[in-house]
Amino acid sequence: MQLFPTPTNKAPDNITCVQVLSSGGIKLRAAFCVPKRPKGTVLILGGRAEFIERYFETMRDLAGRGLAVATFDWRGQGGSQRLLSNPLRGHIDSFASYDTDLDAIYSRVLVAQCPKPFFGLAHSTGGHMMLRALRGKKWLERAVITAPLLGFHFGLWPEFVARNLATGATLTGMGSAYLPGYSHLPLKSSDFSTNPLTSDQKRFERDMDALDRHPELAVGGPTFSWLRAAISSIDELMDWPEDQGPSCPTLVTMAGLDKVVNNVGTKSFLARAPGFSSLTIADSRHEILNEKDAIRQRFLAAFDAFIAG
Predict the structure, then answer these.
(1) Looking at the chain, which terminus has fewer C-beta neighbours within 10 angstroms, N or C?
(2) pLDDT classification of 277: cutoffs 50, 70, 90
(3) Domains and CATH numbers, the chain
(4) Rg of the chain over CA atoms, in angstroms?
């Protein structure tokens, strides 16, 4: 397994790419970099359809703060092993499989290769998975989550229809089919004007260039099974015990202009689950770390302050 830097997206210094076996023998692509005299390590968890290279800039930023970084691609995406014969389908049967990926990375990369203390930085589906871990695993000193997947914008579909459709399709053997209304293909540079991810064209085109050069990293739309698994896991998190906080201090950051995840779900979660801090960046789209410099710097200032305690 290898990494794919480009002229506009340079890899951080001292980065090492490794293969990690997860449950079922699934091969995960992981990477870590450790600067001189590190102050600790940040575990980065990316979102659905993302890949390690999208976080090179953030990894360099963290290294400049004296922090080591570890990250990886979830099963079924990026440079990790795909789960279907069509590699573009964003698929999973259960988010419990992602739990096992995270367990493998924690023990075989974070603990084995990186200096303590450990911190977390997680985005979207990665933020959802970090919340699952924070229900009891005492791995991290502090965690920061951006735009967590805790609710969907179902568009013209009432929520009960989306739920029933995802369940019915999965139970009748159609779970690996694409969800209607989603593109079967990944985004491309010409999609910038309509993209819901970022208002920063330079960063958007940087990531699209990576996919143009290395299309094997790309993922298209999700499957019915992925949606059913996501809804089931959201329901689990929404049952968070009202008398139990996260296993470490955690900051949840919402993007005020988010059209990918539904902030109503995040606010409902925060109203129930005790002990979380929250922040909203009003002028940000979904991918706060890929936004314009002014937005990104405001978030990084909040990250620095929170991680420092």
Answers:
(1) C
(2) very high
(3) 15-308 (3.40.50.1820)
(4) 18
Could you identify the residue written with the tokens 């069509």?
A: 86
Which pLDDT score, from 0 to 100, does residue 189 have?
Answer: 94
**What pLDDT score was predicted for residue 104?**
98
**Cα gap 229→97, rounded to integer Å:** 10
Cβ distance 204 to 197 under 8 Å? yes
| pLDDT tens digits along 36-70 | 999 999 999 999 999 999 999 999 999 999 999 99
Three-state SS annotation for the chain: CCCCCECCECCCCCEEEEEEECHHHCEEEEEEECCCCCCCEEEEECCCCCCHHHHHHHHHHHHHCCCEEEEECCCCCCCCCCCCCCCCCECCCCHHHHHHHHHHHHHHHHHHHCCCCEEEEEECHHHHHHHHHCCCCCCCCEEEEECCCCCECCCCCCHHHHHHHHHHHHHCCCCCCECCCCCCCCCCHHHHHHCCCCCCHHHHHHHHHHHHHCHHHCCCCEEHHHHHHHHHHHHHHHCCCCCCCCCCCEEEEEECCCCCECHHHHHHHHHHCCCEEEEEECCCCCCHHHCCHHHHHHHHHHHHHHHHC
Instruction: At 27, list the tokens.
Output: 């091969």
